[in-house]
Amino acid sequence: MGSEDAAGKTGESAAVSTAVNFAEQAKDFHEGVKAPNRSFLSICKSLFAGGVAGGVSRTAVAPLERLKILLQVQNPHSIRYNGTVQGLKYIWKTEGIRGLFKGNGTNCARIVPNSAVKFFSYDEASRGILWVYRQQTGQEDAELTPLLRLGAGACAGILAMSATYPMDMVRGRLTVQTEKSPTQYRGIFHAVRTVFIEEGPRALYKGWLPSVIGVVPYVGLNFAVYESLKDWLIKHNGLEDYSELGVTTKLLCGAAAGTVGQTVAYPLDVIRRRMQMAGWKHATSVVTGDGKSKAPVEYTGMIDAFRKTVRHEGFGALYKGLIPNSVKVVPSIAIAFVTYELVKDILGVEMKISE
């Protein structure tokens, strides 16, 4: 019995030692990235702040978002929307104020969780990447480089896009519908159900590949440029931390980030939208293969969509809607970043981006 007791005590000691080692490793991890433990309440607050940021920023530019999509998919042989001002006036005249915000409810239903996941994922990815970077370099006070921020932003964008992509697919089709078009979709859930039944579950992810490829430079550059600009301003002006930067300064940083990101990724957004509309006979307009047939264009994949678009409409077609999109993106990204940080300050969330 004595030997059994000794063995039991030895096992208990080993278990305690293992638990202590795990606790010390976890402590080292958090101390290594100089960030507090993420409580459940803190995570919820961070997700909420990201959702609010997405909803506010997207609603503020909803008319420009709808016009951008209409410009992207309209038939080049039947032009209805010719520029930002003319396009907005035409929508107002033919559909009223409700037309300017058509699809915004669906858009917010998608962008709120998308934004929540994106900002939260960026926070967490930044912490993880920073820890690995410090372990590899042996520099405990090392900070994130622009390239590492680009990687963290890319991870966040891919996760957010994949999680909410079916909502984006449905939002695109609801946005393209007009009162003169045959009514097919009555709302979000009806659209999802109709697409699932008539076109199959894979149709809900049409254009997913160019979306994921496009989100890497877009979201990655947004975060990398925004955070790097703030770092530069703090060091250049001899400030203590991010809280000393004014709202106007942060808005300008966000505007610059949005401009860079959307310019690089815009062609992929056009291809994604066209792939989403492919095969849907009730779209407002379809791009015909020979300029005469009214049959919807079918794409075998992302490369085929690029090839057919450039061949039939020229390279400039990849930038259709870029002007209203630029007008939209500049305030949208800026508002999203600043709103996110303001809401986190109000809620008292301990960890901010890049801290």
TrEMBL record:
GO cellular component, one term: mitochondrial inner membrane
Localization per Swiss-Prot or TrEMBL: Mitochondrion inner membrane
A Pfam family: Mito_carr
Solcar repeat intervals: 41-128, 144-232, 245-346
Gene3D superfamilies: Mitochondrial carrier domain
SUPFAM superfamilies given in the database record: Mitochondrial carrier (SSF103506)
GO BP: any one term: transmembrane transport
Top-level taxon: Eukaryota
InterPro entries xref list: MCP, MCP_dom_sf, MCP_transmembrane
Annotated membrane topology: Multi-pass membrane protein
Keywords, in A-Z order: Membrane, Mitochondrion, Mitochondrion inner membrane, Repeat, Transmembrane, Transmembrane helix, Transport
Protein family (similarity comment): Belongs to the mitochondrial carrier (TC 2.A.29) family.
PANTHER family from the UniProt entry: SOLUTE CARRIER FAMILY 25
Protein name: Mitochondrial solute carrier protein
